[in-house]
Amino acid sequence: MNDDLNLLYQVRKQQRRLICIPVLISTEGTDNFKIDYTSDVSVGGFLIQTGTPLKKGTILDIRFRLPGAIKLIEAKGEVVWSHEYKPGTEPKQDALPGMGVKFLELDEQSKKYLISYVENEKGSTEEDIFVE
Length: 132
Hints:
6 strands, alpha+beta, disordered N terminus
């Protein structure tokens, strides 16, 4: 993991943005992608709401596109917490069914785009970030 990302993960106080977008995930080394949905995003990672979360420590290949973006963001991530859905019980607010995913690898352009998207209340357009 590069030093910039390592520093970002040390502080959980990262600004987050509520967002519901589809996310393609597969366990590392497989091509069996499944679709789940994220409910928030930060430069460090996101929450994936799912009734079938993967185990803590699972390494993932991730693909997603932020609203208004053309570029598909591809990243490697790790499940850092996991809460299973238990039928017949009401989920606690701090333990919704799903999993927290931390980005392990994220290219520089994608990282800049995420920073801009999260910090900007209205989001940003791809032109704002991907000007060569």
